[in-house]
Amino acid sequence: MSESAPPTISMELAATDLFKTYRLGKVDVPVLKGASVSIRKGEWLAILGASGSGKSTLLHLLGGLDRPDTHHGDVTYTNRVLSEMSNAQINDYRNHTVGFVFQFYHLLPELTVLENTFLPGLVGRRRWWWFLLAAAGILPAFIYEEIQYRVAAAKLRARATELLTSFGLAHRLNHRPRELSGGERQRVAIARALMNQPNILLADEPTGNLDEKTGSEILDLIAEQHRKGLTIVMVTHDQTIAKRADRVIRLHDGRVVS
Amino acid sequence: MYHPLLTTRYLTSRVIPLIAVAAVALCVALVIVVISVMTGFLDMVRDSGKTLIGDVVISYPIAGIPYYDRIIDRLTKNSSVAAAAPVVDAFGLLQMPYPDGPNKQTETVQFWGVDSRFAQVTSFADTLHWKVPTDNQFLLLFADAFRAYAKSLPSLLSDDQKRALFKELRFPEDSINRATDSQWDAISSFLATDPVLAKDTLSAEQWATFLQSDPRMVTHAAFADAIDSNSSMVLKTLGASDRLNVFERWLREQRPSYSDSEVRDALKNPPGDAEWPAFLHRIVFSMDAIRPSLSDQAWQALVTFDARLAQPNALVSQGLSLTRNGKPAADLGMHVSEANIRNHEGGYDVAASDHWWMPTWSVTLTTLPVHGGTLSSEPESYIFPVANEFMSGVYLIDSKRIMIPLDVAQHMLHLDKSTRVDPGDPTIELGEDPARATMILVRAKPGVTADELRDIVADEYEKLDAEISSERASSSTYVASLPPYFGTRNGGGGGGVAIQTWAQQQAQFIGPVENERNLMKTLFSIIYLVCAALVLSIFWSIVQEKTRDIGILRSIGAARSGVMWVFLRYGFWIGVLGGVAGNGLAYIVVRNINPIHTALGSPPVFLAVFAAFPCLIALFWIFYMAKWKGLLFLAITITVIAAVGGSAWLTSLLLNFNISGFIEENPEGPIGISIFIILLCALMFGEVIPQKGLIPSLVGTLCFIVAAVVSGVIIRGHMYGGFVMWNPEVYYFSVIPNSVDWRTAWGTMFLALAFSLLGASIPAAKAADTDPVQALRYE
Q1: pLDDT in tens, B17-43
Q2: Which of B403, B377, B382 is nearest to B88 (CA)?
Q3: What would the pLDDT profile of B115-164 be if each residue is shown by its tens digit?
Q4: Which of B542, B556, B778 should we substitute to test contact with A (largest number of A Cβ atoms within 10 Å)?
Q5: CA separation (Å) from B624 to B376, B617, B621, B631, B706?
């Protein structure tokens, strides 16, 4: 029995028999129909699939951004089942354990490059005394937040600057995202994803919006993080890009086919 | 922790929140301005009651209250009463001395007979309008008076006086008897600017005669006499620091063109001890410089030396004592001549330079006395010189009331002391009928409320009533009876005396104003809902637009509550900023409400120029933003409007239809039509104008039309008179109250904040509910 069981120790993230159905108006659209995947620690996994095959949905479920249909599969992160976590724990999981990179970068337009990068560092759980302050009045809560923000921002700035400098964006720190090229924006997005030193990077078509040269530069950047030991799950429809990964699985019609 | 960062960025990098702040600010300002004016109005009604009639009034109109002096004696012995005063009031006709010719102007007036006690109960003294002129006004008065007087100078002056003058002016001394007119002009102009020299030149009798030409100069002249004749004593009293004070004040008064540093330089060289007698004589008319510079001790020392100094306010005291040159005189509320005119707004327009004119003629008051319940067939008339004018600020009173001495009023109304005879046999004398007053005004000591005082007064009145009743029973001669008191609810009807607080007396004024204010408060609370709706709709669109940001925040681990908190914070800041800005705006508007109102009533031309400025900017904007096609757009719009207007005008001509009357009655019609035409043009000619230029040229055209209309309205207002919202004939007061009601202001700010948060909470909840996957799905 014990020999046939999967080696759970080395499995960092696993999804078993996931079902996900979206409702479009009155029609139920099943996107995932029993997809299973397991990712080992330090592995670079590429999920290859045509558009509409459910690969983005799978990534969202792995990242805890969405939940599978009830009683239809589970996502497990090192023995902890995501659907059993509380809201706060899921938020913390998204904040600390995984980092998302999207096709369309998804940077906040009002913030500078630096602020966009250290934003995940600012997101954290409220301490219990915050609620005391808020109960005492809205102003003490504001003042507390304001002070907390200034104290935290000083530390985070250093880390974000370091990250962005290593990504070759030292001269762009105080620019707004709209002033950046696509490749630069994606590098900022990766820096943001790495801000809280997550264990897993979840990338959704990270090069989908870039030309070939910039795309391969981005992949080089991801490969470098992978070399440093980061687990990477990358979704793509492009075979050539998928080849950069350690392992490729194919998703077809909501199921893993290979 | 990311909330402060996001809120600040959202607030500062977009226009929409600014619009939200502006909307909240306008709502807040609107509420504060309206409530402040209403509250100020209410306070003014209350205060005016208090300052004009005291705290409690005992009144028994027409027949009057006998033994009022005994009542007042009794009352003033009570520890709660500060002062009490008798008043005789009735109505009469006042004949004014103008215009020239037989048809003099006549006014219906309410006259009050008062004595010196009146000013102790009310703040009558403060309302007197003729006060001692300032030093600078005195110089102007003196110059005017002296120029008139100087026409007779050649015949008045003795040879010695002439010789001294000629020497002073460096005219050849031998020319004194054949001096030219221009030389005399120079002399009179010279003396007119220098009262000290004029006084030195004229003999004592000439000076006294000259001073009578304008009583307004008397106070300064008396002061100068007193200082001059006691100069050595004055100089002894003045210590070194006093002297420096006098010198500095004199510099600042008489050398207004000096800058601060020049004054400081001059102060380094004050007159030395030896020069002071001469210097004091030079500045002897500078009452404002000398009097306030002295310590109280020094002043007391001087006053004990010369009593003339103790009466620096001859005009006010003549107004208070209602005498002029020892004769009974009247204080008038309405204007007394065409030179100083109380204008329509209730203010005071002074015709001659900047000082009021003091009439020398008299007014005639005529009334019909009522005695024993029957109207006398013989009218009583009395001629009064004018002692002073008063301006209480209450239009109703200022335009209708005159004050005359109590004894004259009693005499005119047959309320004075007389002998009582037997109605059956007039030869039998029954005794003395005492003088009567129709009102007794009572002022409370500080800390005693009007209601408490009323009970005390009623109590004292009843005690005296009992006392007099027993006198009547025991006395063999006639003793008048006090009118009975039927209790606090009695308004004076049914034959009883009324004892009322000022608030009860003014109830018919205060009641409606209070109601009106409460109504306003209720109506304007709808504004808060408007505020909430505004914030809600603006925030709804902001959240709609920020959906992707919400998705991003959720993807990096932000909680639902955190996202909600971002938008609540955002709403909070919009409420705070809007509230503070609205408060500031309201403060500026309320403080300057009177100038603003005046400007609206007769807008100055420069405002029209100001309004025309945006016109030009709008034109420039159209030209710059939309280039030639924008101008084309403007031209088309104007042509269409002109064509519609022209055809409307033609139609009105043909059909004999009064279009301007129609527009005046229905102003929203043409405005609506214009906007419709503009929008139509925008749609029709959208093809002509490149996509990029459409919005700027539309905005520019709208701005142009609004600015043009505003500027046209201002010019029209300037030419034909603008809006008068505050008609003093309706609102009793000549000025609009201009103090901010801070309680309302804080309350409004707080409510605006609360409703901003309320408005923000629904979109914030929507934001929290946003599905991050949906939000991130599409670019």
Answers
A1: 888 888 889 888 888 888 888 888 888
A2: B403
A3: 888 888 888 888 887 777 777 777 887 888 888 887 777 777 777 777 77
A4: B556
A5: 83, 10, 5, 10, 19
